[in-house]
Amino acid sequence: MSKSIINILSPKVVREFIHTHMNDDPVTLVLQSKKYPDLPIREIAAQIQSRKKAQAKLPEWYEQDDIIFPHGISMEQCSSEETAKYKASLVQGNSVVDLTGGFGIDLYYLSQQFEQAIYIEQNKELVDLADHNFTVLEAENIDRVNTTAEQYLTIEETPADAYYIDPARRDESNQKVFQIEDCTPDLNLILPQLLDRKAQVLIKLSPLLDVRRALEVLPNVKELHVVSVKNECKELLFKIEPGYEGAVKRIAANLVNGNRSLFEFEEADEGMLPTFSQPLEFLYEPNASILKAGGFNAISNAFILNKLHRNSHLYTSNERRDNFPGRTFKIVAQTVVNKKKLKAYLPQGKANITVRNYPLTVKEIRKKTGIREGGDVYLFATTLIDSSLVVLVCEKV
User: Fold this and answer.
1) Of 21, 122, 208, 325, which residue is the least packed, with the fewest Cβ within 10 Å?
2) What is the distance between the alpha carbons of residues 322 and 320, in angstroms, rounded to a whole number?
3) Whole-prediction pTM value?
């Protein structure tokens, strides 16, 4: 993305064309470029493709016709509006610095909680894009600096109250990396400088990262937030405060259409063993963020539920828990993976299948039984406390 691209996409006639052709196939538009000799069709097609993604991911920005979106990795990796707003609720003060500005989504929402915000980005093309979009959005309290995080920290005159870091998770060959030491900028070099500034630090890392190892590597972590959107894990957020040495509060957040489902616990809560039993009347499947945060026992004890097996992470009770942070089902029957036995419960030959601590995959079960995807019946293939392999036939409640 360059200033020339911004100029190419900014004219009114181009913006109107994009708006009119939003439902067109970008590839088809490129193939038909000769029909529009006076328009930059390739750039327009790329912008339409990015705007299609933004419609669900960044609805507030999408509504602004003059916003220009990047394409490729920058659009794929940028935060969603929901997760950016969630981050903005975690830190406070008068000034905030985003050391890895990127497309600028996170800092835009963070800046609404601070009097002054500073955007740091080494890629000049992204800086130009952020400058354009922040101007469109009238984000007047955001200063833009085109440099690296490391260089900025050497020239910063007044420490900020909070720093945000979203390290790049791709190597020089553009391959994804997931270990902290492989990310850029190097947190081992930057964190000591930020802690010396006595500032809050918020770090975003990949949901594929091992949580326990991250907590061993990162210093002074006060809170770990595992953030899901519609039950799909999107981000790990580590809130660091200088000098903090207490227990790490783990917050599993599931964001759905502006609503937040939160479950909080500490390592000590996880150390309390749950009770186990055979399946009772109701079955519970915790949100993905709870499982990623490692709240296997904590969720059982918090809601007074029995666990089916140490490694199954499914829970049961005779009385329904209305406020459970996850999916709740009524158990209709208990059987095994057998085509004839399952057929009695599936008049349409369809079911939604979930596997928890079971030797077969969903694909293998479908191949073995011929069960098609969909319908109102939910099958949970799992292992019980007595090590028996079963399928729980359920209906959602």
Assistant:
1) 208
2) 6
3) 0.92
**CA-wise closest residue to 352 among 391, 378, 380:** 378
- Quick: pLDDT tens for 20-35: 999 999 999 999 999 9
What is the predicted pLDDT for the residue at 178? 54
Res. 370 pLDDT band, cuts 50 70 90: very high
- What pLDDT is attached to residue 77? 82
**In this structure, are residues 181 and 155 in contact, taking their beta carbons and an 8 Å threshold?**
no
Phi, psi dihedrals of residue 123, rounded to the nearest 5°: -85, 110
Number of structural domains in the chain: 3
Same domain, 156 and 94: yes
pLDDT of residue 301: 97
What's the pLDDT at 88?
Answer: 97
Report which residue type is found at 198. Answer: K
Q: Determine the 3-state secondary structure of 390 from DSSP.
A: strand
Residues 179 and 304 in one domain: no
Average pLDDT value for residue range 201-225: 94
Q: Tokens at residue 201, please?
A: 């630090």
Indicate whether 115 and 85 sit together in one domain.
yes
**Residue 86 CB partners (closer than 8 Å, separation 6+):** 225, 227, 253, 255, 260
CATH of the domain at 249: 3.40.50.150
- Nearest-CA neighbor of 106 among 87, 131, 128, 127? 87
Please give the Cα distance from 165 to 221 (Å, whole number): 14
* Helix/strand/coil percent split, the chain, to 5: 35, 30, 40
Beta strands 232-240 and 200-205 are antiparallel
Is residue 3's pLDDT more than 80? no
Question: Are 105 and 217 part of one and the same domain?
Answer: yes
Long-range contacts of 33-40 (CB under 8 A, 24+ apart): 39/13, 39/14, 40/8, 40/9, 40/14
Q: State which residues form the domain around 289.
A: 272-396
- The phi, psi pair for 147, rounded to 5°, reads -160, 180
Strand-pairing partners, residue 333, are 393
How much is the average pLDDT of 308-335? 97
Cβ–Cβ under 8 Å, residues 218 and 191: yes
Task: Please report where in the chains the tokens 């984000």 appear, as a residue.
Answer: 139
For residues 327-339, average pLDDT = 97
Rounded distance, CA 210 to CA 268, Å? 19
Displacement of CA 271 from its chain's centroid (Å): 27
